[in-house]
Amino acid sequence: MKNEKMKVQYRINEQITAREVRVVGEDSETQVMPTSKAMQIAERKGLDLVEISPNAVPPVCRLIDYSKFLYQQKKKQKELKAKQVKIEVKEVRFGPQTDDHDYNFKLKHAKEFLSEGNKVKAYVFFRGRSILFKEQGEVLLLRFANDLEEYGKVEQMPVLEGKRMIIFIAPKKTGASVKKPATVVEEGSSPEPRVLKAAPQVRAPKEYVGPKVEGED
Questions:
Q1: 75 and 95 in one domain?
Q2: What's the CATH number where 57 sits?
Q3: What is the Cα–Cα distance from 150 to 179, expressed in whole angstroms?
Q4: How far is CA 104 from CA 94, 111, 148, in A?
Q5: Residues 64, 35: contact at Cβ < 8 Å?
Q6: What residues of the chain score a pLDDT lower than 70?
Q7: Res 80: pLDDT
Q8: Which residue, 66, 9, 76, is CA-closest to 42?
Q9: Which structural domain range is residue 105 located in?
Q10: Of 143, 99, 101, nearest in space to 122 by CA
Q11: 3-state SS class at 121
Q12: Is residue 210 assigned to a domain?
């Protein structure tokens, strides 16, 4: 089905209506010639004359096997599609007096969203007279952005839009982090880990067990 659509996009051989064309090919120089002559060259080489730029003056045509040409176009489209990164915007909603349990639950999800490469739109919704706590909502959003500093960067600071105060956080592009081994610091000790050197071992003197000398006890 896709190939059929691509065939409609390009005119080939007798479908080309221009009187003369600019011919390009892998093994030939670019030159302008009558369309009839270009088709004769294509036929002689066992190729097709494909119109690739119909709006040019004169139209640009290529000498190539049409099946190979369609395959190349399809491959290019596939590569372009693979390079396109689709970024979604995930919403996280708070109330002006969100408790710690709900806050941490939403913070966890926001970390997952940013790790997957999505943007986060976090907002505080003010219902009725709760708009009086808009400063409290701003503090909450700034705390949220600060807690996500490792995963994303603030794209838009908190802005009040109607009954919502909104902040946008974009994902950070970082490589895989290397985990460092945990260091146990005892209470009251220096925060820097100490390296304890093993005490040198002192060998006990060996007892003399040779033959006794006359006069010894």
A1: no
A2: 3.10.20.80
A3: 14
A4: 11, 11, 11
A5: no
A6: 1-8, 26-28, 84-85, 130, 174-217
A7: 81
A8: 66
A9: 89-171
A10: 143
A11: strand
A12: no
